[in-house]
Amino acid sequence: MFNEVKKSIQWGEETLTLETGKVARQADGSVIATLGETTVMANVTFAKEPKPGQDFFPLTVHYQEKYYAAGKVPGGFFKREARPTEKETLTARLIDRPIRPLFVDGFKHEVLVMCTVLSHDLVNDPDIVAMIAASAALTISGAPFMGPIAGCRVGYEGGEYVLNPTVDDMHELRMNPDQRLDLIVAGTKDAVMMVESEAYELSEEEMLGAVTFAHDQIKPVVDLIIDLAEDAAKEPFDFQPPDYSALYDAVKAAGEKEMRAAFAITDKQERTAAVSAARQNIKGALTEEQLEDPNLGAALKKLEASILRGDVVKGGKRIDGRDTTTVRPIVCETGFLPRTHGSALFTRGETQGLVVTTLGTGDDEQFIDALHGTFRSNFLLHYNFPPYSVGEAGRVGPPGRREIGHGKLAWRALQAVLPAATDFPYTIRLVSEITESNGSSSMASVCGGSLSMMDAGVPLKAPVAGVAMGLILEDDGDFAILTDILGDEDHLGDMDFKVAGTESGITSLQMDIKVAGITPEIMKQALAQAKDGRMHILGEMNKALSSAGDFSVHAPRIETMNIPTDKIREVIGSGGKVIREIVEVSGAKVDINDEGVIKIASPNGDSIKKAYDMIHSIVAEPEEGQIYDGTVVKIVDFGAFVNFFGKRDGLVHVSQIENRRLNHPSDVLKEGQDVKVKLLGFDDRGKVRLSMKVVDQETGEEIEPEKKQKDDD
After folding, report:
1. In angstroms, rounded to a whole number, what is the distance separating the alpha carbons of residues 580 and 557?
2. Alpha carbons 642 and 628: distance in angstroms, whole number
3. pLDDT, tens only, 199-235
4. DSSP string spanning 68-92?
């Protein structure tokens, strides 16, 4: 009934197994991949005919984490998996990016890749397993996929690269100073296709070494997929890339000169209009048959690419007039908005980001429910890319995959320099509003985010800047690396290479390659050129930092205190009665965690002090020899009971009230009277002994022995 094929290798410290032929047999390709006890199923289907008139490749990748995989029930009211989480969206992008360029040019059939996490051992992250499963399913499906690819994760600890570190090792990397890298690399046996990373000021050499290490580690997995395909692959789909050379010759003859003139215009809006007009004029010169050819769009793009690419490689001159290493003019402004906690406007050429910082308390932390557990995040970065930023009128909706991906890249770049939560106990939310775009808006978000947080008074370890690099690689091996690429250079080039970091090192690296053949030498040159660009941008940012504001008067102040864990119950009180009273009386927010760390927040310093004093009086013990303010709560024949330390009372014996004999304490005291007392100590039964007569009731100062003797005389 089943035609099962199963292949395994030892990969690092775990066994990697690929199997097919038993589950989802109606899919074009179905593979279940298992690493340790983490299992992901990938299913591939593709249409056997393209949609009429479709001029793009409709590849869709879905990644789904089922809560049953970790023995959990989903949270919320509906108790079933709903819209994709951020992790699911980012993983789908991780899989999409390296496989998309490997489909045969001209293939425009709809392709669906669905990866489902079936089991999670809470050790091996399923994202890498899903990428391998998807590649294997595509390889055996018969689709014109020029893979396979494989992927792995790399850590960096103690100067050594680590293959596929555990989920716990990579969780909240900022809190783990021993781990300095979370790097994902995907590629074929011959070339790296995709890099995504979170780093902690690693040098260019260390990052390049990590990528090289990863590429070496994925080669056995590629061989495993090929081994599986030799026994289980379907017949290749009969697809021949369309030959539109005659159409291209006609397009080139009709409009090369006009298109070249259009690309010579440096202003984006004018250039876009001129390119659009050149396209229309070319179409006007074609026959009806040529206009109906589904490859017309590809022919036009090929003409545009040949003009842009050829001029750069041969002459070193780009469409906006720059050479290959120059960064566009930069203008940085901090304190751009009057009422926000921090803001910055970062403009680089025709790319602009307005980035706003909001500081919140522990109540504002984000709860994240993931397969490996529920945790909280105190650093949030949200990226918005409205249609007007590129001069278009389009639909506005919830953030898509692109917005989530760009926001996460900027998050990775910035979180490496954040202060420890114990030093800066705030929730930080950054919002990047992209107001103009022609080039990398994610790197503008990094630069603007760094400036905005510093404007808000966040004590970053160092400013962070980012730059996007491009590559044009010709068939003859000639190439040009471009610093600070434009949108057109991204669309028509061969590599999108984003590097962010401080003066000391790289904090994030993202790379997408559209062609196989990027050598380590090209990557090394790109990293060196990116470092020069980053240093230039940091220099421009430093000019604005001198005018950055102090901590915003509109932001909440937060003070932390640590109490013994056995005192937590006393601060909270029965049913939360005590802590509610502290909040009501002081007017401050009070948050206590299980470790005894208390955060007190309020824009008013007096409120914070009042809450602090109230908590301190509950958890602290009175010190012998100290003087305290107190209130008489009860008068008896032998003295007076005084409340002097929170809810703690002590006895002032009648002999300790004044330096004279009293008939009765009520001669000089009454209930509710404020007095000053010194803690003399504790008697054999632990009762508190207080004295009034050794304290000047006016000043609160202790009466010196000489003065006391004189008064007695």
Report:
1. 19
2. 10
3. 999 999 999 999 999 999 999 999 999 999 999 999 9
4. GGGT----SSS-S--SPPHHHHHHH
Question: Which tokens belong to 417?
Answer: 């320099």
Which residues, including other chains, have CB under 8 Å from residue 338's CB and lie 6 or more apart? none
Q: SS3 helix, strand, coil % of the chain, rounded to 5? A: 35, 30, 35
Strands (E), 314-391: 330-334, 342-348, 351-360, 366-370, 373-377, 379-384
Rounded-to-integer distance, Cα 177 and Cα 164, Å: 18
Beta bridge partners of 195: 185, 511
Of 228, 236, 137, 146, give the one whose Cα is nearest residue 187. 146
- Three-state DSSP at 632 gives strand
Say how far apart CA 286 and CA 253 lie, in whole Å.
Answer: 10
Check: CB of residue 618 under 8 Å from CB of residue 570. Answer: yes
Neighbours of 590 (CB within 10 A): 23
Average pLDDT score over residue span 621-640 = 88
User: What's the rounded Cα separation, in Å, for the pair 488 and 496?
Assistant: 12
Phi, psi of 628 (to 5 degrees): -130, 150
Q: Tokens 């007096």 correspond to what residue?
A: 606
DSSP alpha helix (H) spans, 171-295: 204-232, 245-263, 268-284, 288-291
CA distance 486 to 519: 23
What own/partner pairs with CB < 8 Å and gap ≥ 24 does 395-402 have?
Answer: 401/89, 401/92, 401/93
C-alpha to C-alpha distance for 319 and 268, rounded to whole angstroms: 10
In tens, the pLDDT along 161-182 reads 999 999 999 988 888 888 999 9
Helices (H), 287-425: 288-291, 296-315, 401-415
User: What is the spatial distance between Cα 235 and Cα 251, in angstroms, rounded to a whole number?
Assistant: 36
Q: Is the distance from CB of 480 to CB of 469 less than 8 angstroms? A: no
Whether the CB-CB separation of 380 and 426 falls below 8 Å is answered with: no
Give dist(CA 16, CA 12) in Å, integer.
Answer: 9
The C-alpha atoms of residue 570 and residue 591 are separated, in whole angstroms, by: 14
Token digits of residue 96:
């999409």
Say how far apart CA 473 and CA 522 lie, in whole Å.
10
CA distance linking residue 136 with residue 147, whole number of Å: 9
User: Three-state SS for 670?
Assistant: coil
- Grade residue 66 by pLDDT with cuts at 50, 70 and 90: very high
pLDDT digits (tens, 9 = 90+) for 476-515: 777 889 999 988 888 778 888 999 999 999 999 999 988 7
What φ, ψ does residue 15 adopt, rounded to 5°?
A: -95, 130
Indicate the burial class of 663 (C-beta count within 10 angstroms; 0-12, 13-18, 19 or more): exposed
Least confident of 168-177, 315-324, 500-509, 545-554: 545-554
Query: Residue 706 has what pLDDT?
Result: 55
Are the C-beta atoms of residues 395 and 368 closer than 8 Å to each other?
Answer: no
| First-residue to last-residue Cα distance in the chain | 113
Cα–Cα distance between 193 and 321 in angstroms, integer? 30
